[in-house]
Every structure is written in structure tokens, then in C-alpha cells.
Amino acid sequence: MVDEQGYRVPEVCRLVGITYRQLDYWARTGLVVPSIREAGGSGTQRLYSFQDLLQLRIIKRWLDTGIALPKIRKAIEHLREVEEPLFGVTLMSDGNTIYAMDSPEAVVDLLRKGQGVFAITVDSVREDLEAQIRKGRRPKRPAAAGGR
Predict the structure, then answer these.
(1) What's the total number of domains in the chain?
(2) Of 64, 80, 108, at which residue does a domain stop?
(3) Which residues contact 30 (CB under 8 A, 6 or more apart)?
């Protein structure tokens, strides 16, 4: 993983693809607050961590796909509440809601306070069904010779 150096505002904006105004607004409203150092007055600069950059880039991608900022804010807040790490998770959206998936069976609606979404992995159902059929199938008896 990338060193836990601090990333200054100009570099964050360049790496994430957002404007200074966006970054400043998101920090002031608590969407993504710099975790290494907040600006503490004249002469100090905000320093963002790699994890902060990851969150910012995810937010930017969601915005680019048309998801409204209030929905994004709600999803990020839920991820923080459950302390969900941002690695090993697939984040999805249908444009109306945002889902987190850490396995094919575990999909969570992040906008409905983590309400589970029913998910079926069809391949595993097929495999279970095939195994059950093989297990329960008895060999056919040969027809009696000379039968009617």
C-alpha cells in the first residue's frame, strides 16, 4: 500500500479530479475531513491520507455517474458507522440507491441504514441442486427379461 504520507490540497485535487471548492466544501461539511491534519489557521494546510483520497475518488465517481450528493453523504455515513473498510468491498448503484457487496450473498443497501438486499448466486444454487439430484438418484433397475 501507499505510504501514509500526507497529501496537500493541490495534489488531492489533481489526483481525485475535483476542484478546490469541492474539496473545501466537503471538508467543511464533514463529508471527508482530512485525517492527518486539518487546517488550523493561517499558514497550516490540510493533509489527507491515502484512505481519504480513496473516499474522495469514490465520491467523485458516484457524482460522475449521476448520484446525488445527499445520497452519497448518507452512504458514506453508513460506511463509517459500521466501520466498513473500503478494501475488499464492491460498491454498486442502480442510480437510486448505493449498495455495498463484500460477498455474492451479502449485499447491503447503504441508503436504508444497512438493510440487507436479498441476493442469490445462481451458480451455487445450481450446483447444490445438481449434487442433491445425484445423491438422491438411484440406479434404474433393468427391465425384466422376457417381460410383457
Answers:
(1) 2
(2) 64
(3) none
